[in-house]
Amino acid sequence: MALLDLTPEELLTTTRSVRRRLDLDRPVEPELIEECLRIALQAPSGSNRQGWHWIVVTDPELRAGIAEHYRRSALAYLDGADRRNAGYTGDRAATQGRVTDSARYLTENLHRVPVLVIPCLEGDVATIPPQAQAGFWGSLLPAVWNFMLAARLRGLGTAWTSLHLAYADEVAALLGIPPGYSQGALIPVAHTIGTGFRPAARDPLETVLHRDRW
Description:
Low-confidence stretches: none
Shape: globular
Strand content: 5-15%
Number of helices: 7
Helix content: 40-55%
Structural class: alpha+beta
C-alpha cells in the first residue's frame, strides 16, 4: 500500500484520535499491522530492555469480549465527561462536546473495529514504586506512539484508549496474558474514511510554557 504524501511535520500534527471516521466494514491487512509494529519496535526503552509485547486481536468473539469490558468502564467515564463539559463555554464547550460524542460512538462500536491492539510491558505495574512509574511506562508508550504514526502514514486510523484497564484482569484472562505483564493501552485500528486530517485546536503555547522557573 502506498504511503500518504505527508511531510514529517504534517504526520506529527495530523495523527489524530480517530473514532467516527474509522471504516468499520473494511478489513485491515495483517501485513499493514506488522509493518507498523516493526516501526514501533524502533522506539527507545529503558536500558534497551525491549520488554514490550503486542496482542493483535481480530477474532470477533474476543473483540466483543474486550468491548464489553470497555463499555462497562466507559459509561461511567462518559457520564462524568458530560458533567465536566457543562463547565466549558464558547468554542471549548463545542469542542469538548464533540470529543465526548466521538468517545461515546467508539464505546458503542468498539466491537466492530476490525483490529484491536493491546501493547503490554514486562513487569507488574502494581509492584512499581511511584518514583519509577515514569521510567516503567516510558519503556512502552513511545513505541505505541510510533505505531500510531506509522498507521496514519498508511491510511489507518487509531485512537489511544485505556478505559478497559479498569478490567485489566478480566481482559488478561480473556486473552491469556500471563502474570507479570502490564497492559498499557487499547488501540482500535481501521482504515479511515478519507485521509485528510487537520491539526487540532490547542491552547496557545504561551499558556503552558515556563522558562527556567514555573
